[in-house]
Amino acid sequence: MTRLKTVMTSHIRVYxxxxxxxxxxxxxxxxxxxxxxxHSSYVASDGRLYFNLFDDAxxxxxxxxxxxxxxxxxxxxxxxxRVEGYTNLLMxxxxxxxxxxxxxxxxxxxxxxxxxxxxLGTAWMTVRIGERISKDAExxxxxxxxxxxxxxxxxLILLYYPLNFWSLMGxxxxxxxxxxxxxxxxxxxxxxxxxxxxxxILLMAGSFGLAFLTRNDSLVFAALSFLFLLPTLKxxxxxxxxxxxxxxxxxxxxxxxxxxxxxYYGEIMPNTYTLxxxxxxxxxxxxxxxxFILPFLKETGALLLVALAGLALRFSWKRLYLFGxxxxxxxxxxxxxxxxxxxxxxxxxxxxxxxxxxSFACFEIVERFSQTGWIRNFALAALSIFALYVADARxxxxxxxxxxxxxxxxAQAHVEAAxxxxxxxxxxxxxxxxxxxxxxxxxxxxxxxxxxxxxKYIASLPPDVSGQSAGFGMNSMPxxxxxxxxxxxxxxxxxxxxxxxxxTQKLSGWxxxxxxxxxxxxxxxxxxxxSPDIDWxxxxxxxxx
Length: 545
Prior knowledge:
Layout: H1 2-18, H2 20-40, E1 42-43, E2 49-50, H3 55-68, H4 89-101, H5 104-134, H6 147-150, H7 152-159, H8 161-168, H9 173-192, H10 198-214, H11 219-228, H12 237-265, H13 271-276, H14 282-299, H15 301-313, H16 317-335, H17 351-369, H18 373-392, H19 396-399, H20 408-424, E3 430-433, H21 438-442, E4 446-449, H22 456-459, H23 485-491, E5 496-497, E6 501-502, E7 505-506, H24 508-514, E8 515-520, E9 523-528, E10 541-543
Parallel strand pairs: 3-4, 3-5
Antiparallel strand pairs: 1-2, 5-9, 6-7, 8-9, 8-10
Helix pairs in contact: 2-5, 3-4, 4-5, 5-7, 5-8, 5-9, 5-17, 7-17, 9-10, 9-11, 10-12, 11-16, 14-16, 15-17, 16-17, 17-18
């Protein structure tokens, strides 16, 4: 027993000595992330502390809450027609566990904590990918005695704000990055192994399968990895069988979710696919996508150019393989026509790979100009800081916690509205919203989604390409360009309405006759006049329109 304890202590000491820098960085990142989560929280008018995710993540939280409480994987409990208004099944299932274990506020907090795990896990695996590539003797980057060289990608990933933001604000971005880097690492280990263990390729397929459940469009990344494994087929029949087995395993994830979707929701594709892609002409999408992606290419241009220079200076198929993931994410973003937010959530999961290639390139460029240790270290650090600052410049105030996280002020306003609606309305009341996350999550009432994520009728409408529902270099914003306020407001008459104008449709004039504007605590609400689902005795302040 004493000998076993001595051996274990020795192993722990060796591990800590070898990995002291990333462990220290992990602790520092955990501290910053905890401060970020606290900074994004909010003490509301009811005196309670509320944690906040990004609004789209809160849509998934509502699905998770309903599932955890026996109402089904739906946005509205009791709806005759089920609608799949999420694109992140696995993240939604994780949210259902959190909402089963905790109340609504602390379930949100638990999901924010998972973002720390996913970001750190992604950073750790990216370093291992770098070490794996360096074993080809093409570079001594990953095997250098200097921790600065070995863990430069680790530092850069933890400093890249968009990945941190989306991960800590509950979006599936961090989870996707985690499974992607895991799958890539396993694919590299498999191709490097002389006997190619079956466990590696099956685990790779499983990692990409979980990535598919996280976001179905990660299918394009899995295809790239299977393409990378094609040269292994020439080694014999066993490798062919393993490749086919991995393909079958990955296909099981696709077929399994598709079958569930068909039998549960009655559709082959999610409602969000119909909402964002159907009816939008390809040329219009491509123009929107290109207009959206240009600022991203400018922000990451320094990183991208250095990475490409490194790829040219010391080319290898493995490095090209990594760059392929980043390139595919950019092309995919253009193909789908942009995004509603310019914080680069589609590209963020592949940015760790670009940062790794950038680190390789910096090391090799600096090494060509100087062999003096301190000069190389200084030049490497300076080049990295400059390039990352260019990519992160727009987010510095948020990173330093000087500003609230992106759109967090809206989340706080929605919390106040939720408190007021819960106090003023009865169970049969309905709420009509453009923001489908925070407010419906904290209000246990039937909700009407004006923008169609959870409404098949709205999702099937033709998109508005007038330019009035656009932004971020686009003429029409995906997921926000289909609406019919005549149906959603005038016909359905929600008890509470968030706003009455969107794009080309303006109902404010009509609403003055049917809705009253009230102030309750710190919230201002539009309520249906004379509704029996409102406790009018509590309404003390009527506001002018």
